[in-house]
Design brief:
seven-stranded parallel β-sheet; alpha+beta; 15 helices; globular; seven-stranded antiparallel β-sheet
C-alpha cells in the first residue's frame, strides 16, 4: 500500500466525519514573513484589495500568518499578489485536509506518473474540467466503461436511442461523438487505444473504481477514425476533426487530442488544423514512437506545430525522466520540433471491455498534457491557445538529459501550471527562415512565441541582435554575418537552439604558381572558422590535406608534382554545445572538385541519393553511367554492407535482410578527371506503402502511389540530352512504379504523391516531367497536378506519354523539381582580400580587414578603373599572399604599407564627406531661399 493510501486510510479512521465536512477548496492562505515583529491586522494588495490576517505562528525566528479569502476569489491570483509583497518569504494555500485530494480509486498505486507531474498537489487547487470539451481523435471510447461513461460528452441537440437525426447533421444518435470510419453515430472502441487515452485525460476519480484521470470530471468527445486494428485514413481523421470543430459551442473551450502519427503530408489535414487554429481550439499531438529526430524527418500531424501556434508536440519519458527507448517503440524528439515531455511509459489506464491496461508511447504522454491544459481552460475559458501553449512550456521541471532534445527540455509540472495560471509568460515556440529551418548567417528570421510585444533584447549566445516587434506572437530578428549555432532568446524567455547552416567556399580558383605548384584561392564564408582541403591523386579516394584557418584564403600545395591532382573543399565552424558544453563542429557540403591538368572520360550522370528500399525485396538501381558506354569500374571506399553489391556497370543491387540505415562511399571519375566521392545512404524499411529519399537541396522526399509499388527511386544528375531549359537549380527524381495486376497496361490512372518540407509555399518550386520524346513538359493543374506548400499530388491519366520503359506492368517517370532562386539564398559577401587576410591575421586587426573590404565594395567597385584593379588583384594576389605567409619580415613591411593605404583612403573618404556636406548645405540653402522669398514679399 502506497504512502498516500495509507495516510488517507488512517485519516478516515481517526476523523472520518471531519473529512466529509471539509471543503476540497482552500479557504485561506498561509504567509511567512521575513520581519518577525507583530503584524498589522490588514494586508493591502497593489490593486487595493484588503485582506484580514491572523497569527498562526509567532516564534523567535518565525512569523506565519493566515488570511481568509472569499470563496469567489481566484486562489492563484491572490497567491501571486501576496508573494509579490515586500517581506514575504512564501505564501501557500491553507488546505483544511490535504489528503482529501488523494483519490480512492482502486488502481491509483499503478499510476506512477501522477507524482512525476505533481498531479496530487495540483488537485488541491483544481480537479474539474466539466466545462471543457476534449475531442479524442482515435479508435473511439468504450462507452460503457465504468470509469469513463460519466465523463462522456453529450450532444445537446440529439435525443439518445430514438433512431432519428435530431440535430440534422446526417448522423443518427451521435450522442457521444462520431464514427468517421463507418460514418455513423456509434464511436464505441473495438481496439482499446482511444479508451486508454481517454482514461489518462478524464477517468472518473475518487469513485473507488479503477484509476484517476488528470481531470476528475470533463466532457470527452469520442471520435473514432481508426479501425479495430489501429488502421485508418487521413480523410477519416479530417472528418473527425471537422466534426469536433462543428460541434464546438460558442465561448466553450475545446481541446483536440491526436495520439497518432502518419508519415505523409496532407493539405486537407493542414487545412482542417488551420480551421481549428482560427476557432481558437488547442491541439495536442504525439511526437511519434520510432526514435527519430523530427527535425530531420516529417511526422504528421505533429509537424504542423511548425506552422500553427496552437499545437503542442509531446515526447515520452520514463520513470527516470529519460526519453523512452525500448522494444515498444522509442520516443521521437527534436530540439526545434518537439515542444515538451510527459510520462508515457507503462501508463496504466482504462481499456476496452471495461478493463484496464498499461501501454507505452507518446500516445500516452500526449493526453497528460491534454488533461493539464483542460484544467487551465476550466478556470480561464477565454485563454487563447497561444497563451495556453506558452503556459505549458513555461511550467516544466527542467531535466538535464532532455537538453538538446526538445524545444523546452523539461517534464510538465501541473502544480506549477495551476499555481501560475494568471502569469503571462514570454515564451519562444519556433523560428523560421526563408527556406524552412535552413538558417544562414546574415539573414532575417521570424521567431514565434507569446508575450513578445514587451521584448527589450534579443541575443544569440549572449551576442545582441537587432530585431523588430511584429506583434505579441512574432519578432523579426537579424542575424550577424558570422552567426553560428547557439541559443537564441529574449531577455526573459526560454532559449531556442538555432541551427545555422554554412556553405562551401565560394569563387574557388586553382592555378599553377611561378614555382610550378598548384595554388588554391577562394572566398571564405562569413561565419567560417576554417576550411578543410582534400586532395586525390589518380583514382585514389580523397584524403584530408590541410586545414586553413579563416580569414586566410590561399594555399599552395608543395608536396611533389601534383599538377594532375584534384582538390575539393568545405567550410566549417566550431561552436560550444550549450547543453553539453562540448566543442562541436558544423561543416558544409563539399565544393565541386577542381584540377589543373587532370583528364578522363566524362560521366553521363551520377546519383545524389537512393531512396529507401523494402526489406527482403530484390532491388537494382544504377548509380552512374559513362558517356562512352561499355563496362567500367567504380569502387567503394569501404566494405559494402551485408546484402548489397556494386557491379562494374554502376548498378547497386541486393536483397536487404535487416531494416535500418546503411551508408557507404562510392568513388568514380567525373568530367574534369577528378575522382568523385559520394556518400550513398539507403534506408531499408518494412513499410511498402511509401518510400523516401534525401533531397540535394535539403529536406526529405516522401513518395507514395495508390497503384502498385515504387520500385526505383533516386535523385540524380541530368543526362547530356536532358537539359532543362531556363532552369538553373533543379533536381531530377527518377522513379518507376510497378503496377498492380488490376491496372490495365499503361491506361490505368495513377495518383502519385510527393512531399518535401524544404519549401514554405507552392511558389518555391516548379514541376516538370520528361515525355517519351525526351522533351520536358511543365505540369500545371490542367495536367492533374495539385501543388501544396510541401509537395504535389499528380493524377497521371496518360501513363504511356511519360513511360520510358514501355513495360506493360511498369511506368518509368523522370520528374524535375525546379528550385526557385530564393530557396537557395546564401550569404554572398565577397570576403576575399588575400594579402590583407595574411597581414591582418589576429582578432585585433580584424576591423582593418573589414575596412579594406568596405573600401573595395564602397569605392573601387563604383568605377570602371576600380573594377579592373580588383580583377588584376585577384589574379596576382594569391601568389603574393602565399609568399608573404612564408616571409614574416616582409609581412611587417606589407602591413605598414597597408596601414598607410587605409589611412589615405579614410582621409579621402573624410574629404569626400566634407565636399558632399558642403554641396548639400548650399543646395538646401538655395532651396530655402527661393522658397521663403515669395512669402517675405507678401
Amino acid at each position: 500500500m502506497s504512502f498516500y493510501r495509507l495516510s488517507f486510510f488512517l485519516l478516515i479512521i481517526c476523523n472520518s466525519s471531519a473529512l466529509i465536512a471539509e471543503s476540497s477548496v482552500a479557504s485561506a492562505i498561509l504567509i511567512r514573513w521575513i520581519d518577525q515583529t507583530a503584524p498589522t491586522e490588514l494586508i493591502y494588495l497593489p490593486d487595493g484589495t484588503r485582506l484580514n490576517q491572523s497569527i498562526v505562528i509567532h516564534g523567535e525566528n518565525t512569523l506565519v500568518t493566515k488570511v481568509v479569502i472569499d470563496s469567489g476569489e481566484p486562489l492563484t491570483t491572490l497567491l501571486k499578489s501576496i508573494r509579490a509583497l515586500p517581506g514575504v518569504i512564501y505564501a501557500e494555500p491553507d488546505y483544511p485536509v490535504r489528503m482529501n485530494q488523494i483519490p480512492d480509486d482502486s488502481f491509483i498505486d499503478e499510476q506512477w506518473y501522477l507524482s512525476t507531474v505533481n498531479a496530487f498537489s495540483a488537485w488541491d487547487m483544481s480537479t474539474n474540467c466539466s466545462d471543457v470539451i476534449v475531442a479524442i481523435i482515435d479508435t473511439g471510447i468504450d462507452l460503457d466503461h465504468v470509469d469513463l461513461q460519466t465523463n462522456l460528452w453529450v450532444n445537446p441537440d440529439e435525443v439518445a436511442g430514438n433512431g432519428f437525426d435530431d440535430d440534422g447533421n446526417g448522423l443518427v444518435d451521435d450522442v457521444h461523438g462520431y464514427n468517421a470510419f463507418k460514418n455513423n453515430g456509434n464511436p464505441d472502441d473495438d481496439n482499446g487505444h482511444g479508451s486508454h487515452v481517454s482514461g489518462v485525460i478524464a477517468a472518473s476519480s475518487n469513485n473507488s473504481e479503477g484509476i484517476a484521470g488528470i481531470c476528475w470530471s470533463a466532457q470527452i468527445m469520442a471520435i473514432k477514425f481508426l479501425d479495430r486494428f489501429g488502421g485508418g485514413s487521413v480523410s477519416d481523421a479530417v472528418k473527425g476533426i471537422q466534426y469536433a470543430i462543428d460541434n464546438k459551442p460558442l465561448n466553450t473551450p475545446m481541446i483536440i487530442n491526436n495520439s497518432w502519427v502518419i508519415g505523409q503530408f496532407s493539405q486537407t489535414l493542414e487545412d482542417v488544423l488551420k480551421q481549428a487554429e482560427d476557432e481558437g481550439i488547442f491541439v495536442t499531438a504525439a511526437a511519434g514512437n520510432t526514435g527519430i529526430d523530427n527535425d530531420e524527418v516529417m511526422v504528421f500531424p505533429t509537424y504542423f506545430r511548425k506552422l500553427f501556434d496552437n499545437i503542442v508536440s509531446v515526447a515520452n519519458v520514463d520513470q527516470q525522466d529519460d526519453l523512452y527507448i525500448g522494444t515498444k517503440g522509442s520516443s521521437n524528439y527534436g530540439v526545434t520540433s518537439v515542444d515538451i515531455a510527459a510520462p508515457g511509459t507503462d501508463i496504466y489506464s482504462t481499456f476496452k471491455g471495461d478493463s484496464y491496461k498499461a501501454l507505452t508511447g507518446t500516445s500516452m504522454a500526449t493526453p497528460i498534457v491534454t488533461g493539464s491544459a483542460a484544467l487551465v481552460l476550466q478556470q480561464r475559458p477565454d485563454r487563447s491557445a497561444e497563451h495556453l501553449k506558452a503556459s505549458l512550456l513555461a511550467n516544466t521541471r527542467t531535466v538535464e538529459g532532455l537538453k538538446g532534445k526538445l524545444v523546452v527540455p523539461g517534464v510538465l509540472d501541473i502544480q506549477q501550471l495551476i499555481e501560475n495560471i494568471d502569469d503571462t509568460p514570454q515564451v519562444l515556440y519556433r523560428y523560421q527562415g526563408d527556406l524552412s529551418e535552413n538558417i544562414l548567417s546574415g539573414e532575417a528570421i521570424r521567431v514565434h512565441g507569446y508575450g513578445l510585444e514587451n521584448t527589450l533584447s534579443m541575443t544569440l549566445d549572449n551576442q545582441s541582435l537587432d530585431f523588430d516587434i511584429i506583434d505579441t506572437l512574432e519578432l523579426v530578428v537579424y542575424l550577424p554575418s558570422d552567426a553560428k549555432n547557439g541559443l537564441i532568446q529574449t531577455g526573459v524567455s526560454n532559449s531556442l537552439f538555432l541551427k545555422v547552416s554554412i556553405d562551401a567556399p565560394l569563387d574557388i580558383d586553382l592555378q599553377e604558381s611561378q614555382l610550378g605548384r598548384p595554388l588554391l584561392s577562394w572566398n571564405n564564408q562569413s561565419n567560417a572558422d576554417f576550411v578543410e582541403i582534400e586532395r586525390a591523386d589518380g583514382e585514389s579516394s580523397y584524403q584530408l590535406l590541410t586545414t586553413i584557418d579563416a580569414p586566410q584564403s590561399v594555399f599552395q600545395d608543395e608536396q611533389g608534382d601534383t599538377l594532375t591532382a584534384c582538390y575539393r573543399m568545405r567550410s566549417g565552424f566550431d561552436y560550444i554545445d550549450p547543453y553539453t558544453q562540448e566543442v562541436k563542429t558544423r561543416l558544409s557540403e563539399y565544393s565541386t572538385s577542381t584540377s589543373i591538368y587532370a583528364t578522363s572520360e566524362a560521366v553521363h550522370w551520377s546519383t545524389h541519393s537512393v531512396g529507401s528500399v523494402l526489406e527482403g525485396a530484390l532491388f537494382s538501381e544504377q548509380l552512374y553511367a559513362r558517356s562512352l558506354g561499355g563496362g567500367f569500374n567504380i569502387s567503394t571506399v569501404q566494405s559494402m554492407p551485408t546484402g548489397f553489391d556494386l557491379t562494374s556497370t554502376g548498378y547497386l543491387t541486393g536483397i536487404p535482410e535487416e531494416p535500418g540505415d546503411y551508408q557507404f562511399d562510392i568513388l568514380l571519375t567525373t568530367d574534369n578527371g577528378c575522382p568523385e566521392q559520394k556518400t550513398i545512404t539507403i534506408s531499408v524499411t518494412e513499410n511498402s506503402d511509401f518510400r523516401y529519399l534525401n533531397s540535394q537541396f535539403g529536406g526529405i522526399y516522401n513518395l507514395q502511389t495508390d497503384r502498385g509499388e515504387l520500385t526505383r527511386l533516386q535523385s540524380r544528375d541530368l543526362f547530356s540530352w536532358e537539359e532543362v531549359p531556363q532552369i538553373n537549380h533543379y533536381e531530377v527524381i527518377d522513379l518507376s512504379i510497378e503496377l498492380s495486376p488490376d491496372v490495365d497496361g499503361n491506361e490505368g490512372i495513377i495518383l502519385l504523391t510527393v512531399n518535401n518540407d524544404s519549401f514554405e509555399s507552392e511558389d518555391d518550386y516548379s514541376l516538370l516531367v520528361m515525355d517519351r520524346f525526351d522533351d520536358w513538359i511543365e505540369l500545371t493543374t490542367a495536367d492533374g497536378v495539385q501543388k501544396t506548400a510541401v509537395g504535389f499530388n499528380w493524377v497521371i491519366e496518360d501513363n504511356e506519354l511519360f513511360d520510358h520503359e514501355v513495360d506493360r506492368n511498369k511506368v518509368h517517370l523522370k520528374v524535375a523539381i525546379s528550385i526557385k532562386e530564393k530557396a537557395l539564398a546564401q550569404n554572398t559577401d565577397d570576403n576575399r582580400c588575400f594579402i590583407a587576410s595574411v597581414v591582418y591575421n589576429n582578432e585585433t586587426d580584424r576591423q582593418k580587414l573589414k575596412a579594406f573590404r568596405a573600401f573595395r565594395d564602397d569605392m573601387l567597385t563604383r568605377t570602371m578603373s576600380g573594377r579592373i584593379a580588383i580583377d588584376l588583384y585577384y589574379r596576382v594576389s594569391p601568389e603574393i599572399a602565399w609568399w608573404l605567409l612564408h616571409h614574416p619580415n616582409f609581412t611587417k613591411i606589407a602591413k605598414f604599407n597597408l596601414n598607410l593605404v587605409l589611412y589615405v583612403s579614410s582621409v579621402l573618404e573624410y574629404f569626400w564627406l566634407l565636399i558632399a556636406g558642403f554641396v548639400l548645405f548650399h543646395v538646401i540653402g538655395f532651396h530655402n531661399k527661393n522658397t521663403v522669398k515669395p512669402y517675405l514679399k507678401n
